[in-house]
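Translate structure to sequence.
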């Protein structure tokens, strides 16, 4: 397959590139990785693929109409996997405009280019597929007794981030029903695993625990999330791309509902296993409850029955195995975090896509 992947230098994107080009991938022969290279993108995430001729890195904005149009013409993509997004809730509260421009306007520009491209390929008797990767946060918040989010749950976004993703989901749906663009949408739960930017809960806590620093936990810490190991998510995306029904939505979850507080305590225990006895800390010594963020959703939970039954996908990792693998990766790649914290990771630029 010839694929355009947007946002492939971020957390999920870089893991997906590795999966698609790896032995369990889909036989991808040509993968154009278009990334704006904002703060959350890291060239180091894919540095070992620099000599792989199948991987074509291009620095650019999905909102750049001329660039995106040219890429579709030059590379004749068979599929698009749209991952590029501003995704950190706290940042969306402080500065929402970037989320609207990337997640809404950027998705619109990409859909328009894909619509023209699909029309051309259809006239030539060629297939095309557009996979839009979204989030469970578009569904809003659940109470403890509510059933998990399904594909028919009404949208109720509560942050600028989730509202911008909801808007992009609606645009994707409209392009299927109005223009016949063969789109598939996925809504996933909280991902974790290697190469996650350290502002997110799990890598942030691992880093702070190692240094013996205070661990800020919003409110009472009893917010519930469904945790999905990133490699399980990548397997699901590949399955949806190849076998999902156009126009359909597939929810992807780990079936692992945990409170933020329990996640932090588990990470403390796992990190302590790797530290000298003199550096180990008790949870009570580290955890500090801080003022909750505005509009903080109380509980997310994903019902992934549809993808499990239709596409025979199931998560392979549970929190015990997934968190242990994640802690191990961050210990074995300490320099990766150090370069992010120092800012030195942002020095490298990618190709421009010219020619």
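Result:
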């Amino acid at each position: 397959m010839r694929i355009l992947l947007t946002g492939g230098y971020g957390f999920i994107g870089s893991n997906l590139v590795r999966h698609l080009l790896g032995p369990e991938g889909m036989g991808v022969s040509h993968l154009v990785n278009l990334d704006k290279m904002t703060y959350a993108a890291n060239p180091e995430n894919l540095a070992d693929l620099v000599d792989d001729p199948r991987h074509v890195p291009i620095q650019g904005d999905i909102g750049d109409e001329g660039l995106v149009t040219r890429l579709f013409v030059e590379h004749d993509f068979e599929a698009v996997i749209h991952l590029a997004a501003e995704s950190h809730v706290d940042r969306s509260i402080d500065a929402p405009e970037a989320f609207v421009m990337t997640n809404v306007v950027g998705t619109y520009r990409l859909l328009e280019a894909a619509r023209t491209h699909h029309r051309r390929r259809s006239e030539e008797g060629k297939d095309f597929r557009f996979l839009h990767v979204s989030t469970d946060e578009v569904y809003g918040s659940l109470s403890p007794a509510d059933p998990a989010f399904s594909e028919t749950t009404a949208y109720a976004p509560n942050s600028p981030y989730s509202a911008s993703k909801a808007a992009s989901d609606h645009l994707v749906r409209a392009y299927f029903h109005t223009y016949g663009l063969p789109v598939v949408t996925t809504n996933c739960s909280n991902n974790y695993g290697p190469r996650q930017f350290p502002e997110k809960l799990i890598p942030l806590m691992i880093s702070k625990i190692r240094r013996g620093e205070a661990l800020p936990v919003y409110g009472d810490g009893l917010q519930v999330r469904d945790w999905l190991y990133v490699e399980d998510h990548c397997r699901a995306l590949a399955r949806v791309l190849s076998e999902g029904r156009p126009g359909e939505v597939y929810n992807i979850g780990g079936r692992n509902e945990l409170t933020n507080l329990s996640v932090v305590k588990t990470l403390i225990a796992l990190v302590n296993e790797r530290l000298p006895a003199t550096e180990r800390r008790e949870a009570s010594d580290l955890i500090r409850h801080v003022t909750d963020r505005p509009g903080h959703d109380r509980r997310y939970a994903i019902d992934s029955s549809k993808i499990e039954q239709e596409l025979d996908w199931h998560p392979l990792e549970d929190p015990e195995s997934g968190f242990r693998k994640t802690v191990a990766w961050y210990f074995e790649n300490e320099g990766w975090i150090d370069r992010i914290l120092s800012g030195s990771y942002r020095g490298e630029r990618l190709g421009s896509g010219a020619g």
